[in-house]
């Protein structure tokens, strides 16, 4: 879906910190809505480039990337972020394509032929970036299995759709009420309601959010809307406050029960 996104210039590397850039791409149509897109590029210690959620690839962007390092890894972090992988794979045939659960199946249903992929591990980083990028597939939903990453050197957490924070002034006027009703405008960016409803195991979700908080990110990059340049931990606590509150309360109650049972046995 053509048109400005409010994040111009598009299709160019934008420095985030040492060894990490983002790329604001053009809007893509999702459920009839123009979603702004964003990729993240990390330069690994050996000079290889790791590209999260590739956006549209242009000739000028390709030249920029080649000046920084060889593109070696293409990441499809969840089942709805793979649209431009094939064009990147064609441009960089030596790159390895890594996919989260559900990517191949959904692409096939959409009639798209993706390159052969390797599965992202659920609880540990892949060998090419182990020790440099933390990795986890967030649990709790059978539908939305999103891989999240932390670039350790810059303390940057890289999410995709687990938080969306649309800046309404950058949206078409007709889209603004939809974003407000969904509660994913930038005033209080969070998980979209349809995705949240898919997480039946809230305890598993909360546990993985607490793991991300424990990684102590300074910044959080999102695929859609404003990303958080500072106060990363506070933004996670805010965005997931409901599920964290319930989880922490349940844990306190269970602790009290265990303590009572222990004293009763004496």
Description:
The longest helix has 24 residues, at 241-264. Helices cover 31% and strands 22% of the residues. The strands form two sheets. A seven-stranded mixed sheet has the order 1-2-3-4-5-6-7, with helices on one face. A four-stranded mixed sheet has the order 8-9-10-11, covered by helices on one side. By secondary structure, it is an alpha/beta fold. Helix 6 (202-214) runs antiparallel to helix 7 (232-239). It starts with 12 loop residues before the first strand and ends with a helix. The model has no long low-confidence stretch (mean pLDDT 93).
What brief labels describe this structure?
266 residues; alpha/beta; Metallo-beta-lactamase, Chain A; seven-stranded mixed beta sheet; four-stranded mixed beta sheet; 11 strands; 31% helix; globular
